[in-house]
Amino acid sequence: MLYSDKVMDHFNNPRNVGVIEDADGVGEVGNPVCGDVMKITIKVDAADRIDDIKFQTLGCGAAIATSSIVTEMARGMTLDDAVSISKQQVADELGGLPPAKMHCSVLATDGLKVAVDDFLVKNGRDPIAGPIKSSDPNFDPHGDEDD
Ligand code: FES
Fold first, then answer.
1. Which residue range forms the structural domain that includes residue 104?
2. 63 lines ligand 1 (CB under 6 A)
3. Which residues, in sequence order, are CB contacts of 143 under 8 Å at separation 6+?
């Protein structure tokens, strides 16, 4: 299985690792297929943009690389744009992922969605990300859905 140079770079030198202690939103998700887990913490500014973001992932190399790139992609984004990041966009940003590893990128996009909705609900607002696919018992991580 071949990984792109960018995947290897983010795996070997993951960006934005850690936990924001006074986070505005927290997202914790698990991959039902492999049991890997990740946690994303975010700070949100007054304009609803992601001001700071950190992650912790206990998982495979692809899960770590996709988590790392998602934090770079989401920083500075509006909440609406952040929850719209698809697993395909994550894979493209990394120069591609092997088909068998595409499901790993769902962990990162779902973790971000949960963190955004956590922030909104804590502030008395309606969630915007909706149901998280990886928490659906019928979710097929090897399916070809868009996000
Ligand atoms: S094998 Fe578990 S997220 Fe990649």
1. 5-120
2. yes
3. none
Atom in ligand 1 nearest the alpha carbon of residue 36: 2
How many domains are there within the chain?
Answer: 1
CA of 13 relative to ligand 1 center, distance in Å: 18
Residue 84 CA to ligand 1 centre (angstroms)? 21
C-alpha distances out from residue 10 to 7, 66, 68, 77, Å: 5, 8, 6, 20
When the pLDDT of each residue in the chain is averaged and rounded to a whole number, the result is 90
**Residue 65, helix vs strand vs coil:** helix
pLDDT of 65-110, one tens digit each? 999 999 999 999 999 999 999 999 999 999 999 988 988 888 999 9
Position in ligand 1 atom list of the atom nearest CA 35: 2
Q: What is the pTM of this model?
A: 0.90
CATH number of the domain within which 57 lies: 3.90.1010.10
